[in-house]
Amino acid sequence: RFTACSCDPSKHTADCEEETGKCYCQPRFEGENCDKCAKGYYDPPECKQCECAVNGTVGEMCLPENGQCPCKPGFGGTFCETCEPGFTNVTAGCKECVCDETGSAHSNCSATTGQCVCKPSFTGKMCDQCQAGFYGFPNCTFCNCDPLGTEGGVCDPHSGQCMCKDGFYECNCLGAGAKALECDAATGQCPCYANFTARTCDKCAVGFYDYPNCKACSCLIEGAKGQACDNKGNCYCKGNFEGERCDRCKPNFYNFPACEECNCHPAGVTLDFAGCDKVQPGELCSCRKNVDGRICDHCKPTFWDLQYHNPDGCVGELILSWRQRPNKIRCSGFQCVKKLGTLTKHHPSGRKTF
Fold this sequence. Notes:
This protein has no helices and 34 strands. The strands form 17 sheets. It has a two-stranded antiparallel ribbon with strand order 1-2. By secondary structure, it is mainly β. It has strands spanning 12-16, 23-25, 29-30, 36-37, 41-42, 48-49, 75-76, 82-83, 87-88, 95-96, 104-109, 116-118, 122-123, 129-130, 134-135, 141-142, 150-155, 162-164, 196-197, 203-204, 208-209, 215-216, 224-229, 235-237, 241-242, 248-249, 253-254, 260-261, 291-292, 298-299, 319-322, 329-332, 335-339, 342-346. Among the domains are: 12-49, Laminin; 97-130, Laminin (Ribbon); 262-316, Tie2 ligand-binding domain fold (Beta Complex), CATH 2.170.300; 318-354, no CATH class. It is elongated and about 110 Å long.
């Protein structure tokens, strides 16, 4: 005589063990009493199926208590379905935002379009251009053109020259950089010395600062974005440089003018390596005996298997030693096996006698 299974249909199947009457769990449950969520399910007691986005998730399992999926770098959201701040374009793998340091308000951009948030007077997807009505990136100075006499009310985005309408002839060449009082009959442009710009030569040209002196910016080409500087003579430096002239490396960058990041491979540098600032000038990392490369990231020729626990960094050549007795082989560094009269080496290291 059989007794009907007494199971909860919300978490058990319709079957149970014949001898004990123990109920079987539905696929989304596990545990002695089927009261826990199985792998791939979350939020007990309902135990809903994980909804991890394939492109952004490491594996397909989520946390059983809240459904949070383990996201790849750059991805975010409960199901790794969007990009984290500072990353964009989820369909392309959440690439890092590329925003100009000078023109952008911060390093974040739109998660869908990649558009950076620009400071006033800057424009472009990366905020690396001057907005209409401004000129001379990366300073982006206001054009200051007379709206009555200017064509379109804007100036040349590079020189700052205002575009005059027909019928406006007053030169007003009173700027400190004007060579003469006469101006171009068609445009109204005053003749400027090389270190001045604008229609009346009353502004410093790109590469000069401190009007009315307009001294040359002394930016170092290796470290500066260009020859432009601010009104105090401070140059606009590339990411790895600093200083008024961009003439030195930022902290944690070395070997000016290369200014390399100290990204030495931890398994390849010597155990007593104290940092990139402690090696000889021109060098970056201090490699172990059998390791090579600028950042100690690969083995020297005839060596292999770069490992942190190996004091020499990499394993050397295979060494075989023979005993006096026939058919006895001793191997160090690898396992050796005898097969049809030949020796075949196997990793990991060990030894075996035949």
